[in-house]
Amino acid sequence: MERNGMPFQTGQFLILSLKGQIDRREYSVYSGENDDFLEVLVREVEGGKVSAKLKRLKPGDQLDVDGPFGFFKFSPDMFSPQKFLFIATGTGISPFHSFVKTHPGLDYQLIHGVRYVEEAYDHNDFDPKRITLCTSADKNGDFEGRVTAFVAEQKLDLGTNCFLCGNSEMIFEMFDILTGKGIPVSNIYSEVYF
Amino acid sequence: MNLSDGERVISVLDKAGYQWTDNEEEANLIGILACSVRQKAIDKVYSRIHKWNKWKNHKNLITFISGCILPDDHEKFLKLFDITFQMKDLPKLPEMISNYGITTPLHLKVGIDPHNENIEQFWDVKPNYQSNFEAFIPIQNGCDKFCSFCAVPYTRGREVSRPSRDIISEVALLAAQGYKSITLLGQNVNSYGLDKKGEEITFPQLLREIGELGKRLKKDFWVYFTSPHPRDMTDEVIEVIAEYPVLAKQIHLPMQSGDDKVLMRMNRKHNMEKYRHIVESIRRIIPQATLFTDIIVGFTGETDEQFDNTRKAMEEFKFNMSYTAIYSPRPGATSHRWDDDVALEEKKRRLHILTEELRKHNFPYNNSLVGKTVRVLVKGADRKEGFLSGHTEGKLIVRFAADDENLVGQFVDVKITSASDFSMEGELVEAGSLKSEVGIPKPVATV
Q1: Whether residue B229 is found in the same domain as residue B278
Q2: Which of A151, B194, B271, B311 has its CA 20 to 30 A from that of B126?
C-alpha cells in the first residue's frame, strides 16, 4: 500500500476496510518504519468479511486505512539488557518482521509456529541462526510441535525480554510457561490476535 | 458521558424553540442517546422505538437517535428512527428535523466516522446544565485502547482531545456561576492531548491549569475526572492533584480484574504490577485520597483462581467503592466472539463475594471518621425522612438531619456520628464554612 507519509512505530497496527464499507479488521504493520510503503500480512479466513475481499484487490484499488494504533511499540533503547525473545504463531510474525527490518543488528531469537512449512512467510528476511520454525502438522520445520512445547524445553535467561504475538490460546499458555520459568511479568509483552 | 451529551442536546433543542416535557406520551419529538456498553441498554432502544412507531398511527411524532451506536445497530436504526446522527453533527439537528421527510445526506450516511471530524462543532454547543451546582465537561471523545470487552472504539471513533482553552473557559464559567462539583469526562482522560502530538497540553498540565485557575478565582469547588486508564496514569498526575485544593482527592482507577492473564485477555495493556505501583503512589502522595474502581466479574474464561486474584486485589487495595459489573458479551466487541462460559449463577456468586469484600473494608474506613467533621456537598433530600444527603470530597455518602432545601448545592460541615458499610450519618455543624475541614484518614486495616 502507498504509505502517503503515515507515521507509525514498529509494532503498531492499522484498521483496514474496503473503501466506504462497514466491515473493518485490525492488522499489524509488517513493513519497517523507514519503508516508503505499508505492508500487512493477511491470512485469508474462509467466509471472512474482509480478508477474502482484500485478496481480490487489484493494483489501483483503494482502501480505508485508519491508525496507527496499539501499544506493542518497540524500540531497543527502551530495554536493558537488549536481549529479545520473539514468539509468534501464524501471521503474528508481522510485528517482528517490522522490528527486525527497522532495527538491524538486534540481538534476538524468533520462534515461529505454523501448521505447515509453507506458511513460514518470508523467513529469508530473518537471520537463519536466529529463527526456529515449529511446525505442528508436518515434520519439515526445525521442531515438530507447537511453539509452547518448544519453549517449555528451553532454558531461558531471566533477564530476557519476551514478546508474544499470535492467537490468544498460544499467548495464555506461553504466559504460564514463561512465568513458570521465572520470567517476571514485567518482561512479557503481548499482542493478542483475537 | 451521555449525561453531558444530553445537556447539549437539550440546549440545541431549546434554542430551536422546542419545549421539554416529562411526559413521553405528550411529546412530538423523542430522542435516545444510546449506550452500547451493555446489550441490555440497546435491547431497550429496540423495545422503545417499536412502541413509538406504533404511536405514529395516531399522533405526529418524530424520533431520533444518537450516542454510542455500533455499525450493525446503526444500519437497523436507519430504518426504525426518523433521524440518526453522530453526536458531532448535533448542531445540525434542528436542520435535520425541519427537513424531516426530505432525505438528507446526513440521514443517509451509513457507518461511523472513525476520525471524529467536526467534533469541535459539538463541543462548541453550550450545554443546558441540568443542575446548578454539579456539571460534567467532556474533554475528549473516542477511544484508542481496544479493550476486548468494549465496543466504544467502534462507536465513538478515535480519541480526539477538546482544545484545552475551551475546557478551561468552561471550568472558569461554571466556577464563577457557583458550581461546586465539576467532572472532566472522557473514555481515557489521562491520555488527553496525546492525539495532538505535542500541539496540545497533556492531562497533568491541564489539571495544573485548572488548579491554578482555582487559586486565582478564590472559589470553593471540587474538580473530578473520570475515567483514567492505568496505562497512562503517571506520578505527575497524582502529584498535581496533591498540589491544588480544587482538584478533588478522589481517584477512580478502573482495575477490571486482579489477574494478569484475564487482563491480557481483556487487552487492557496494564498488569497488576503497574496497577499496584499506581496505588502505592496514590497512598504515598495523597494518603487521604479515596480510591474507586471498576471490575468485571465472570469475563469469558475467568477461572475460580483468576477470580480469587481479583478478590485478593480488593483485599489489598481496600477500595472505597467498586462499580462491579457482571460480564455480558456486547456485539461489536472482540469478546463477543468467545464463549460466554461462566454461568450466570456463578457470575452472581462472584459479584456477591466482591460486594462482601468491599463491605468488609468500607465499614472500618467509614467508622474511623466517626467523631470527625467533614465537608459535604449537599445533593438533595435523603430517602430517610427529614434528612438531606450529599458526598464528601472523596465521594463518600453522608446524610444528616436537616430540612432546609436551600442547603442543596452548598458545602456544609457535618460531624459524623455513625457509619455503615456504604454511607455515614452525621450532624450539621455549619453551612458554607471553609474553616472546619479535617483530614480524611488513610485506608485502615481490615478488622
Answers
A1: yes
A2: B194
Instruction: Identify whether residues A100 and A178 lie together within a single domain.
Output: yes
Q: Say whether pLDDT at B224 is over 70.
A: yes
A177 neighbourhood in chain B, CB within 8 Å: none
Give the tens place of pLDDT for each residue, A85-94.
Answer: 999 999 999 9
Residue B105 at interface with chain A, using a CB cutoff of 8 Å: no
- Judgement on whether residues B160 and B75 belong to the same structural domain of the protein: no
Question: Given an 8 Å threshold on Cβ–Cβ distance, is A22 in contact with B115?
Answer: no
Q: Which domain holds residue A100?
A: 76-193
Q: Looking at beta carbons, which residues of chain B come within 8 Å of A70?
A: 146
In-domain check, residue B406: yes
Last residue of a domain, one of B108, B137, B152: B108
Asked if the structure places residue A8 within a domain, the reply is no
Q: What is the mean pLDDT of residues B55-63?
A: 81
Give B236 to chain A, closest Cα distance, Å.
20
How many domains does one find in chain A? 2
3-state secondary structure of A29: strand
> Residue B115 and residue A66: Cβ atoms within 8 Å?
yes
Same domain, B148 and B104: no
Same domain, A133 and A188: yes
Grid look-up 456539571 returns B135
Judged by phi (left if over 0) then psi (alpha if -120 to 50, else beta), residue B171 lies in alpha
For residue B115, give the 3-state DSSP assignment: coil
Strands (E) located in B85-228: 134-138, 140-141, 160-161, 181-185, 222-226
What's residue B17's pLDDT? 78
For residues B87 and B187, membership in a common domain is answered with no
By C-alpha distance, which of A21, A17, A20, A37 is closest to A29? A37
- Indicate the pLDDT class of residue B310, thresholds 50, 70 and 90: very high
- Residue B423's domain comprises 373-431
- Note whether A45 contacts B: Cβ–Cβ < 8 A: no
pLDDT of residue B105: 40
Interface contact A63, partner B, CB < 8 A: no
Helix (H, G, I), strand (E, B), or coil: what is residue B360? helix
Which tens digit of pLDDT belongs to each residue from B145-188? 889 888 787 777 788 899 999 999 999 999 999 999 999 999 89
Please name the member of B75, B260, B334 whose beta carbon is closest to the beta carbon of A194: B334
Q: Write the DSSP symbol of residue B117.
A: T
Q: What is the CATH classification number for the domain harbouring A104?
A: 3.40.50.80
Whether residue B442 is contained in a domain is answered as no
CB contact under 8 A, B269 and A66: no
Contacts of B231 in chain A (CB under 8 A): 71
- Give the least confident one: A117-131, B322-336, B381-395: B322-336
Same structural domain, B36 and B98: yes
Does residue B384 share a domain with residue B333? no
- Residue tagged 528451553 (cell numbers): A154
| Cα separation, B290 vs B283, whole angstroms | 9
Cell for B169?
A: 473557559
Percent of chain A with pLDDT over 90: 73
Same domain, B213 and B284: yes
Question: What tens digit of pLDDT does each residue of B335-355 get?
Answer: 888 899 999 999 999 999 999
B-chain CB neighbours of A172 within 8 Å are 261, 264-265
User: Which residue in A has a C-alpha nearest to residue B334's C-alpha?
Assistant: A194
d(CA B190, CA B204): 8
